[in-house]
Amino acid sequence: MEGDADEDDETFTNISLADDSADGKQTVLRFRPEDQYSTMNCEIDGDMENRVEQEEKTRLINQVLELQHTLEDLSARVDAVKEENLKLKSENQVLGQYIENLMSASSVFQTTDTKSKRK
User: Fold this and answer.
1) Beta carbons within 8 Å of 13's beta carbon, 6+ residues apart
2) How far apart are CA 109 and CA 103, in angstroms?
3) How many domains does the structure of the chain reveal?
4) pLDDT tops 90 at residue 56
5) Family assignment (predicted)?
């Protein structure tokens, strides 16, 4: 009965092998009931792997969202620093011009002609 279920027990299957033994007996390959459990374990393992993959995806998505928020905060900080930098440059120019005006108005910083004093 090649490929048919054993009439006594439906959990076993008889499979005739091409190389029968010399005494004419048919070689039978039987599947143990434990094989069913390993199949069930594979399904459970598959479900567990899917859960683990889903948890990993969720963790990565949360990490990406957190990094996006951090990037937005850093971009806002860069914009604020650029604005402050432009303001400080403008103030430095005003102060530099004020100092130049003070120096030109003061006799201490006036350029002196050393040749005219020697003659």
Assistant:
1) 3, 4, 5, 6, 29, 30, 31
2) 6
3) 1
4) yes
5) Belongs to the SCOC family.
Q: What does the alpha-carbon distance between residue 78 and residue 84 come to, in Å, rounded to a whole number?
A: 10
- Tell me whether residue 63 is in a domain: yes
What pTM did the predictor assign?
0.45
Q: Is residue 55 part of a domain?
A: yes
Pick from 4-13, 85-94, 109-118: least confident: 4-13
| Residue pair 58/52 in contact by the 8 Å Cβ criterion | no
* 109, amino acid identity: F
CB 16 within 8 Å of CB 2:
yes
Tokens 């006036």 sit on residue: 110
- The whole-number pLDDT of residue 105 equals 87
Single-letter amino acid code for the residue at 115: K
Does the residue 77 lie in any domain?
yes
Cα-based distances in Å from 118 to 31, 76, 108, 109: 122, 63, 19, 20
In a domain, residue 28? The reply is: no
